[in-house]
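Propose amino acids for all 518 sites.
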């Protein structure tokens, strides 16, 4: 059990009787509100949470700090995205604005919802979560409802003077676009001001993406993720960077196929240079993800203008060549890389020594390394061990999709036990569990066609190696279809429908062209 102070245990007792707690709030000292809030959250007392927020007496309300580890309760609740609790919080916030006869002077200026973390396993009783997309949806809806209410009702004039910045990570898709766009458009009239700190868009037409990103106020944006079904190509990215400034941007994720150097013209080369220069103006940029673009021979052009060293770089499946790897290994970024993803590159055959150099340069800070589908075979394991042995800060190592035998995996695991900070390992299904003659990278159809019983017994042996080395703290798994992604999980119905629709359209086009041929 986690440590709780006597104060916290008393707070739990106080809020466990909702009716009593709600009646007694008036007599509660202001500095006890944070304590009562966390206790209510832990016990999922929605009504009490609502009333606490509705009468919040302090200047700020920071979810991450309120739910994180505190002196009174060490348990971190910031990854509990409990639907009951979050809905109570947000409706409480709306009612804070509307609640005139409140005995407290309204002091609230900033509400920060960005500290909420979406994770795979939920520990709340109700087992219903409210993810980032749903939080975006609900806050937008409440802001619009508030505006309608204020227009229709004779409100206390003081209500219009309330101005609360609500910091949030927005997640916009085709399905909630209209609602969010309306809320952002009318932001200046609403007492609750949506302040977008991070923005993720998926399954959204380009025109709508450009419109809504302008509404979010790019000058405040710290993180921008444009993923999957947003058809952003290099010329659109150039327009985006030329027409808007992102001075605070720390993290940028671009969708697959943003760049394709195989089709490059002289104009495209100039465009790429311009994009690199614009990124160079983003002095806070330390995280960059550009997976599944074809960037052969152009990494230097894109990254050399950056003034700040990157801490996170994902260039998986970008068809990098020897020159690209050499640039990375010798660049000033190498010594600062805490997370690196080089998946989808044939490292052992193309650039083993340069890779070795890159790892040795980043070894003092590297925390996460992903080398999926890199054609790492049994004969390369000793070289890999040598490269990793300097990475004493490594917490996460993912190497799914590599043709390694059970024997090689056991050898590797024996070494991994020696990495003191290691917490998470994602290892491939051993090659000897698949039918003889399987080719790598394994296609989706064959991915599950392995001897499951044999795999289970190997996995057991690998866990035993960890156990015998007293490393129960290391989680080892084989997520066949990649790691958990909260955002994808939450919107998979919409994305699934989108993919089926685009597949049908492709089929129809194909049928039409076949008919023309016949």
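Proposal:
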């Amino acid at each position: 059990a986690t440590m709780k102070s006597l104060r916290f245990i008393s707070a739990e007792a106080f809020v466990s009787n909702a009716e009593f707690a709600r009646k007694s709030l008036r007599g509660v000292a202001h500095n006890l509100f944070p304590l009562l809030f966390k206790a209510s959250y832990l016990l999922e007392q929605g009504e009490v949470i609502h009333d606490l927020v509705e009468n919040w007496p302090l200047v700020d309300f920071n979810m991450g700090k309120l739910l994180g580890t505190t002196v009174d309760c060490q348990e971190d609740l910031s990854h509990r995205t409990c639907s009951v609790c979050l809905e109570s919080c947000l409706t409480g916030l709306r009612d804070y604005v509307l609640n005139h006869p409140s005995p407290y002077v309204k002091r609230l200026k900033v509400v920060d919802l960005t500290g909420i973390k979406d994770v795979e396993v939920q520990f709340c009783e109700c087992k219903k979560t409210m993810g980032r997309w749903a939080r975006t949806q609900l806050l937008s809806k409440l802001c619009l409802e508030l505006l309608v209410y204020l227009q229709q009702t004779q409100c206390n004039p003081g209500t219009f003077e309330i101005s609360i910045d609500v910091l949030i990570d927005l997640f916009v898709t085709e399905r909630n676009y209209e609602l969010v766009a309306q809320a952002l458009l009318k932001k200046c009239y609403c007492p609750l001001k949506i302040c977008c700190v991070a923005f993720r868009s998926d399954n959204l037409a380009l025109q709508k993406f450009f419109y809504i990103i302008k509404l979010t106020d790019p000058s405040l944006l710290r993180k921008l993720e444009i993923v999957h079904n947003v058809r952003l190509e290099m010329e659109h990215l150039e327009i985006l960077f030329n027409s808007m400034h992102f001075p605070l941007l720390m993290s940028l994720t671009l969708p697959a196929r943003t760049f394709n150097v195989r089709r490059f013209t002289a104009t495209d080369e100039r465009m790429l240079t311009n994009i690199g220069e614009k990124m160079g103006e983003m002095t806070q940029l330390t995280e960059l993800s550009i997976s599944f673009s074809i960037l052969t021979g152009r990494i230097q052009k894109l990254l050399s203008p950056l003034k700040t060293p990157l801490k996170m770089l994902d260039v998986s499946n970008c068809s990098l060549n020897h020159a690209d790897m050499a640039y990375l290994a010798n660049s000033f970024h190498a010594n600062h890389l805490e997370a690196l993803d080089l998946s989808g590159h044939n490292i052992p055959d193309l650039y083993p020594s340069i890779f070795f150099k890159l790892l040795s340069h980043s070894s003092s800070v590297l925390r996460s390394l992903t080398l999926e589908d890199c054609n790492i075979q049994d004969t390369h394991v000793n070289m890999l061990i040598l490269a990793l042995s300097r990475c004493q800060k490594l917490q996460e190592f993912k190497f799914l999709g590599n043709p390694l035998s059970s024997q090689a995996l056991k050898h590797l695991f024996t070494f991994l036990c020696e990495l003191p900070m290691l917490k998470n390992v994602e290892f491939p299904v051993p090659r000897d569990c698949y039918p003889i003659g399987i080719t790598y990278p394994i296609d989706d159809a064959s991915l599950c066609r392995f001897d499951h019983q044999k795999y289970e017994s190997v996995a057991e042996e690998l866990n035993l190696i960890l156990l015998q080395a007293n490393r129960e703290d290391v989680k080892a798994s084989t997520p066949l279809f990649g790691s958990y992604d909260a955002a994808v999980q939450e919107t998979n119905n919409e994305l699934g429908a989108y993919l089926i629709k685009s597949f049908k359209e492709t089929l129809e086009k194909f049928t039409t062209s076949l008919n023309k041929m016949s």
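The chain has four domains: 6-109+120-126, 131-213, 222-337, 338-345+355-499. Residues 492-517 form the longest helix (26 residues).
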